[in-house]
Amino acid sequence: MKPSLLIYVHGFNSSPGSHKASVMMQYCAEHRPDIRLIIPQLPHFPEQAAGQLAQLIETYRDDYQIGLAGSSLGGYFCTWLHATYGLPAVLINPAVKPYELLVDYLGVQTNPYTHESYTLHSSHIEELKAIDVDTLSCPDDIWVLLQTGDETLDYRQAVEKYQQAHLSIEPGGDHSFIDFERYPERIIQFLNL
């Protein structure tokens, strides 16, 4: 049996130092040290980020059983990776149409975690559209965690897009997903790692 690899994909203007990434890291260290956990610092530009994630999977897929978890924009990337490689995925408050949302962020940005400055152009919006997934090929392998109080994304978009997947919808909360600490064990079980 192959060893387990969990790839956690952070969101827009985030990093491996984000709260949910840290929660997953701590849980695996304490309870599942057998799982190899990779939380890549993604490039700020979608095509580069998608390329880095695809390269990760190409590198490890022959030797590991891989599961994906992604938050916000990371959930969007995980949906694309699921469609491309057939890997199970858990999506936390996923972005459904980031190419619409990020139009408001065109121009100079600063990542609050890394303090890097970069410039988002309309070409980057097109890069996001290029990896949009219309139809879920295997919705049984996707679990979507949503909180209705998400102030950044309209959770109803995710309910509609992922209606055939496993959905957990909690009232209240916010985009950071309040009390995420309740979920790492169940995420790992769902991903069969």
TrEMBL record:
InterPro entries for this protein: AB_hydrolase_fold (IPR029058), UPF0227/Esterase_YqiA (IPR008886)
Domain of life, source organism: Bacteria
Gene3D superfamilies for this protein: alpha/beta hydrolase (3.40.50.1820)
NCBIfam families, A to Z: PRK11071.1
Record's protein name: Esterase YqiA
Organism of derivation: Vibrio zhugei
